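cron nightly-structures :: item 1 of 1
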Amino acid sequence: MNKKTVGDVPVRGKRVFVRVDFNVPLDEERRVTDDRRITESLRTITFLRTRGARVILASHLGRPGGTVKASLRMDPVAERLGELLGVPVRKLDDCIGADVERATAEMADGDVVLLENLRFHPEEEANDPEFARRLAALADLYVNDAFGTAHRAHASTVGIAAYLPAVAGFLMEKELTYLSRALEEPTRPFVAILGGKKVSDKIGVIRNLLSKADALLIGGAMTYTFLRAQGYPVGTSLLEADKLDLATSLMAEAAERRVPFHLPEDVVVADRFADDAAQRTVAADAIPEGWMGMDIGPAAADAYREVILGAGTVMWNGPMGVFEFPRFAEGTRAVAQAMVDSTAVTIVGGGDSAAAVEQFGLADRMTHISTGGGASLEFMEGRELPGVAVLADR
């Protein structure tokens, strides 16, 4: 991690604009139902507070589309953050404007404020320079601790760095350190597990990992594109028919590089997409007509477990099946359990995989769970993240 962090710069008495990722789920009563992204930010916030900085936090919440939506205001987030910090967190009614400028100018050392949802302004996602300048005018230093949005070139992740000294927060440092180490100098064998819906979403990841990993385990709906590319029937399973040649070429590249490319030997199929559907377990090369793949089967789960238990590093991105339906969650659960039972460094790449390990109660037993699904995916592809590129180098 060759970027400067908040620990490398003086902060006492400074107004510090911290881009956090507080895009957390809320229930119908607008209470935070999963505060992991908030708790992960506490180290940076506490570090700044206790060293006399004036902490200005900014985040988006949901997808308001550039308009003000009462259901996506940041008030419940500020309330939960205050509970976790043990100090009041003032939530402002906007993120720019005279009232915001006045409130941030009057802050005392150690104070914390949370700005209103950045995406209430369309200029945020447009990376509008004037909007970025107005955000920057609130502070003396910019800290990006929002790995989950580091792949987005928005005003609060990229544009603002043109006007302020810019460094990483401790969560950003942690994310980059774990992911970089896994990709560049892993404890071997390095096993990558990839699931999810589409091969097209994982092309870059698979190609990059074929030059780095010692084995790939494939699950999720993209399994059926690989199976169909081998000439097997897949029934009504989700299929990218226009990606069959690509799937063939990826398997050929794995064979050429002598990287084991594991596909499930059996799958759980259903007669329709529902938790109460009729189901059966069949060989992966014999899915009946009219049935769809919903999960890897028990034999596949056992085989994958053996590979995982022999690994030194395991990186996982994408569930093995429709884990949201309890009857089709066993493959995903088995992979997660194998990871926590192993002695490997275990890294979960955010998104649905992170949601799954939370659902199974296994999150605290993983080495690292990324707070950014899309960002971790792009990082695994080997792509430079815009929100990281603009931070000062050491």
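cron nightly-structures :: done
The chain has a mean pLDDT of 96.
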